[in-house]
Write a structure and sequence with these properties.
Porin, 286 residues
């Protein structure tokens, strides 16, 4: 996979006289997992943005490289009714670098509008945290809330904070000037971890957890007792805490801006011609 990413990165360098673009976008980031069951929603979403470069390889294909920053979160207080007594929550910053191959349905050298698809590879960094009853920010990975890395649970491996993802999605792009296009894009991220939210499988023995990681780990592993009028106690070892059947996801969506650095491109010339002909002589766009 690393070879494929390098090939996509170096491919534009071997293509001469092709337009280069600066890209930027702003919108929202969201997540789907054990603490947020909806696949796509604005609920518990956060502002996100990104910058990048795009190389046009042909009339329909382009390669993109970008860097994105966002934040994801989930809270059982806003989860399904059956999961609210668990009372878990998390937040995490997301920093992502990606390389994508893009296919546009229409040629923007002869059209002013096109839908497009994209897919590729990404490396992202996350670090889930939550706030305790005193409002202190507590990073969850070091607490091994599900026994990750403990000798008593050899099958629970500690998860890595930097991982690989497969981004894919779709968008639309509209030419608004000789050098500039505006659009909207939605991109999903296929992950290979179920610990983006630090919740995946089953509770571990609270005494073993306290001995190995301290009382704070027990406190953050189960928070049902913090609810008003709750008599809940820490669940028995092996009680279901999350669902490891499906991995977590995060997604990014928002308004895109693309600015061409090559003002002599065919698309720029087309746009000048399109503008000059007016409503009676304009070329057929669709």
């Amino acid at each position: 996979m690393k070879r494929i990413l390098w090939a996509l990165l170096l491919l534009p360098l071997g293509v001469k006289a092709q337009p280069l673009h600066i890209t930027a976008w702003g919108g929202f980031s969201g997540y789907q997992g054990d603490l947020q069951s909806q696949r796509l929603t604005l609920d518990q979403s956060n502002f996100a943005f990104g910058l990048g470069l795009k190389y046009d390889l042909s009339a329909h294909f382009a390669v993109r490289a970008g860097f994105n920053l966002g934040k994801v979160e989930g809270d059982d207080k806003k989860n399904k009714e059956s999961l609210k007594p668990r009372n878990l929550s998390f937040q995490s910053r997301i920093a992502e670098g990606n390389i994508l191959l893009e296919y546009s349905l229409f040629d923007l050298d002869t059209k002013i509008f096109t839908p497009y698809l994209f897919a590729g590879g990404a490396i992202y960094r996350f670090n889930p945290y939550a706030f305790d009853t005193l409002g202190n920010k507590i990073f969850l990975r070091p607490l091994s809330t599900e026994g990750q890395g403990l000798a008593a649970y050899p099958d629970r491996k500690q998860y890595k904070l930097t991982q690989f993802a497969i981004p894919f999605g779709a968008g639309v792009r509209l030419r608004v000037s000789e050098k500039m296009t505006l659009g909207y894009e939605l991109g999903m991220r296929k992950l290979f971890t179920d610990y983006l939210d630090d919740v995946s499988t089953r509770y571990v023995d609270q005494f073993t957890l306290a001995q190995e990681k301290g009382l704070k780990s027990v406190e953050m592993a189960f928070r049902g007792g913090e609810l008003k009028n709750s008599n809940a106690t820490y669940p028995a070892d092996g009680t279901l805490r999350g669902s490891e059947e499906f991995k977590d996801w995060y997604y990014l969506h928002g308004v895109t801006l693309t600015i061409a650095l090559n003002t002599g491109s065919k698309s720029a010339k087309y746009f000048r011609g399109y503008k000059s002909r007016g409503s009676t002589g304009c070329p057929r766009v669709f």
